[in-house]
Amino acid sequence: MATIIENLNGRRLIRVSTDDIISIVREYQSINCDTNSYEKTRQVLDKKDIYLPEDV
User: Fold this and answer.
1) Within a 10 A sphere around the Cβ of 6, how many other Cβ atoms?
2) pLDDT the model gives residue 14
3) pLDDT tens digits, the chain, 56 residues: what are they?
4) What are phi and psi of 13, to 5 degrees?
5) For residues 41 and 27, is the Cβ–Cβ distance under 8 A?
6) What 3-state class would DSSP assign to 49?
7) How far is CA 33 from CA 27, 29, 47, in A?
8) What is the SS3 assignment for 7-22?
9) What pLDDT is attached to residue 53?
10) How far is CA 24 from CA 7, 12, 19, 20, 49, in A?
């Protein structure tokens, strides 16, 4: 589960778990397998929302 970390400057960092990274990579691969170019993959990803769970 992703964890949000606040630092002294007020900037938030998101610590992402291994499972979150694998999930994102799987989502990318499922989209990328249907396309044959970088531009097409980018267009599909631009239209898709990818959410990371927030755990505070």
Assistant:
1) 10
2) 79
3) 677 777 777 777 778 788 888 888 888 888 777 767 778 878 877 887 766 555 54
4) -115, 150
5) no
6) coil
7) 10, 6, 16
8) CCCCCEEEECCHHHHH
9) 57
10) 25, 20, 9, 6, 11
Pairwise CA distance, residues 14 & 9, whole Å: 15
Indicate the angle between helix axes 18-32 and 38-47, nearest 10 degrees. 120
Evaluate whether 15 touches 3 at the Cβ level (below 8 Å): yes
For the chain, the domains span 3-47
Beta bridge partners, 3, equal 15, 55
Q: How many CB atoms lie within 10 A of CB 27?
A: 13
Contact status, residue 48 vs residue 34, Cβ threshold 8 Å: no
